[in-house]
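INTERNAL AUDIT FORM
Audit reference: QA-55
Scope: verify that the stored structure record matches its stored sequence.
Auditor: D.O.
Record contents follow.
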Amino acid sequence: MKKYFISFIVMLFLSAPVQAKDSCSTVLCMAGMLQGVGVVSECKEFVQDYFDIILFNSHGGISLNKTFKAHGKFLGKCTSAGNWPDIINSKYGRQLGF
């Protein structure tokens, strides 16, 4: 019985809908960080989406340059954000957390 329960939980988890990360919400929240507001509770998930993007080099180590570019690409998906993605990425793009 225990095996069936675990299988059910795994199937339920795997069948849950995947939510796309919202780059515009991330830009909004991180713009607030730049202006000294910090990370408010409603923004933690969106800011974490940004810092969850980590790319590695061919030797398995973290590549800060690739991560920087991937952070910028993610923020750049918010086309209505003006130059905020570039400003945010120049400050936080090579950081691995907040």
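Auditor finding: record pair retrieved intact. Residues 1-19 have pLDDT under 50 and may be disordered.
Action required: none
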